[in-house]
Amino acid sequence: MKPLVLTLRNKPSQRLDLSKLTPDRLLGKSAKEIETIDLATTKVAAKVGDFFKVRAGDPHELRFEGGSERLDFVGAKLLPGYAIQIEGDVGMGLGRQARGGTIKINGDAGAYVASGMTAGRIEIDCDAGDFLAAPFAGELAGMAGGRVIVRGSVGARAGDRLRRGIVVIEGDAGEDLGSRAIAGTIVLIGEASGRLGYLNKRASLVLAQRRDFGPTYVDCGAHQLAFAKLFSRALSEDSRRAARLLSQRLQRYAGDTAVYGKGEILTPA
Amino acid sequence: MSQLTRRGVRIDDSFAEAFPMAGTGLVVTAPTRKWALIAAQTATGYATSVIACDCEAGIDRELSPKETPDGRPGVRILAFGFSTKGVEKALVNRVGQCLLTCPGTAVFSAMDGDVKIKVGDSMRQFGDRWQISKAVDGKRFWRVPVMDGEFLVESQVGVVKKCVGGGNLLVMGEDWDKTMRATEAGVAAIAKVPDTITPFPGGIVRSGSKVGSKYKGMSASTNDAYCPTLRGVTKSALDPDIGCVLEIVIDGLSNEAVADAMRAAIKAIVALGPKNGAKRIGAGNYGGKLGPFHYHLKDLLS
Q1: Are B173 and B279 in contact (CB under 8 A)?
Q2: Range of the domain at B65
Q3: pTM of the model
Q4: What's the structural domain count of chain B?
Q5: Residue ranges of chain B whose CB lies within 8 Å of a chain A CB
């Protein structure tokens, strides 16, 4: 069956909250019915039909043709078995609190990608904004499972309070990558800036490029780690560069010793 | 006993009687094939029969680096017990004493199974709070710091509830050498069948037993009907040309796997012929009332 397609008519005049358009909510709805769904906005009340042309199809494969950085919460609370593909950019909260499924986007994503996600897979061909996989203000934990792959660069505080899951960044990272991370794994191929793994509790930060990690990360020597080989194999289809990085002998820096010190930064030895 | 003949080898019109068991498996990897094999052999030691061992275990097959989760040489081992609980206890003890201790090893679940048992979850405390949990693709692993680096172990291992234990073949020949040659060929053929193990030494058992004994309180004793030295004095099942009997016992993850293993073994034994190998093939059963799985030899001739 053909995918359900939402084509953006023109650039939205205000921010649009698309959290109502998760595929499971569109099951069994006709194109007309979908066009009459009310969207949360910032200024004037609006319906899906005001901004999108809907072509009926199977919502298990939802396709957005045309994007804008004003499209917020695309794929929020996505469930297993559903796939969303976006041709263009999106705003904040892509895949927020997703519980499964896959999201693929060939443009840029805004802030809070995969925030609170518990399972699933998000792949971003270009860049992502600040607070990738981080919690919203007031929440205790960020992403708690699943996998995020960013081919481009990400903004500040990526992996903030990351609890579980894998984040792969092939480009550069903004300030304070992996700040306050609880657990989970972050792989960075490009360069990092600011305080790396600041107050990291138990997360693993795997960095292709070595730099000074500050006095609260302590050198534990170079090792062949079986878990890194396992992750290398698990990531081989998602990111060849991440897989190659993890297959190497890795220098282990334990930290952040300002907190538990049970986390680590791994770099090629 | 009515018999069929294939290439001069007599096949009894009999059947092997087997029992339901709970089975599980591990993939053990190490930096080298040598240490993966040492780990697997140690972990499957003293596991021939559940009569006195905690489980029946053996090596299913070797795995190339391409087939293992961490890209290192590995071995797939299987373990069978009467109950899921029993298998869990046996496996935790064996992983703790034989694999945690073995240099370089990592341990993975070999199957999803019907239920899960805690293996890594029971082992993690050895890390004395230095252990690290890592989750990937819905599976959780523990990294336990040890003196050669880290012991990586999967938190839970799958158990298949409807396994089969006790598929068997009785290989009968003129003397020890010829019978052994045929039996070894049978075991080698079974080694190639996936999801099966032959838990006895080298896959072969020479002390087949019958139910009951002349002694009080002994539930099993030597199968005198198949002992060649008693041929004249007991109600023997052996023909005058049989001087040695060896048994292959097979445990498998499924009914089909055990049947395939028996079929492969019979084919290999028959191919050897009676001159240099076995003169007769039989199977052990208890009249068909004890075990739900019956493997009739005549159905397994290919």
Answers
A1: yes
A2: 22-160
A3: 0.92
A4: 2
A5: 29, 31, 69-72, 106, 130, 132-138, 141, 143, 149-150, 152
